[in-house]
């Protein structure tokens, strides 16, 4: 059963989930979390009803899950909003690239298409 906690809690699933990878950075929002691992890969968990977890669906995950579509990228920064997420990927000499996914109802994804409501893949 999901419950609120008033004191810090050890995330017991993380050591077994990342048997050899460590999380070096967390971006915590109201209802979802993005983690950046020491090998610069992204994991997400929490509410995914707008695609903000980046797994290509609109499903919530209550345990950390690797964002497989990003395996080939070197992610340097992650950030999240209410129902959307974003990250910066290093691409070498040509500069960095910025990605957004999740709810785009108010233009927060930076995509100039009137018919975009949500994007579930970065």
Q: How many angstroms does the end-to-end distance come to?
A: 30 Å
Secondary-structure-based class equals: mainly beta
Largest sheet: 4 strands, antiparallel
Low-confidence stretches: none
Number of helices: 1
Strand order in space, largest sheet: 1-2-3-4
Helix content: under 10%
| Count of beta strands | 8
The share of residues in extended strands comes to 35-45%
Coarse morphology: globular
Q: What is the C-alpha radius of gyration, as a whole number of Å?
A: 15 Å
Mean pLDDT: 80
Order of helices and strands: HEEEEEEEE
Key features of this structure:
122 residues, mainly beta, four-stranded antiparallel sheet, 1 helix
Write a concise synopsis of the structure shown.
By secondary structure, the protein is mainly beta. Helix content is 4%, strand content 39%. The longest helix has 5 residues.
Written account of the structure:
This protein is mainly beta and 122 residues long. 4% of the residues lie in helices and 39% in strands. The protein is built from 1 helix and 8 strands, in the order H-E-E-E-E-E-E-E-E. The chain has a 4-stranded antiparallel β-sheet with strand order 1-2-3-4. Strands 5-6-7-8 form a 4-stranded antiparallel β-sheet, with no helix packed on it. The longest helix is centred in the N-terminal third of the chain and has 5 residues, at 13-17.
How is the topology of this model organized?
Elements: H1 13-17, E1 23-28, E2 32-37, E3 42-46, E4 61-66, E5 74-80, E6 84-90, E7 96-103, E8 118-119
Antiparallel strand pairs: 1-2, 2-3, 3-4, 5-6, 6-7, 7-8
């Amino acid at each position: 059963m999901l419950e609120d906690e008033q004191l810090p809690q050890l995330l017991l699933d993380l050591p077994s989930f990342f048997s050899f990878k460590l999380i070096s950075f967390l971006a915590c929002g109201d209802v979802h979390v993005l983690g950046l691992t020491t090998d610069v890969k992204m994991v997400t968990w929490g509410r995914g009803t707008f695609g903000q977890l980046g797994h290509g669906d609109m499903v919530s995950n209550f345990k950390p899950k690797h964002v497989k579509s990003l395996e080939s990228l070197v992610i340097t920064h992650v950030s999240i909003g209410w129902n959307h997420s974003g990250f910066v990927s290093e691409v070498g000499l040509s500069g960095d690239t910025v990605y957004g996914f999740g709810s785009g109802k108010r233009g927060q994804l930076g995509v100039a298409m009137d018919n975009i409501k949500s994007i579930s893949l970065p």
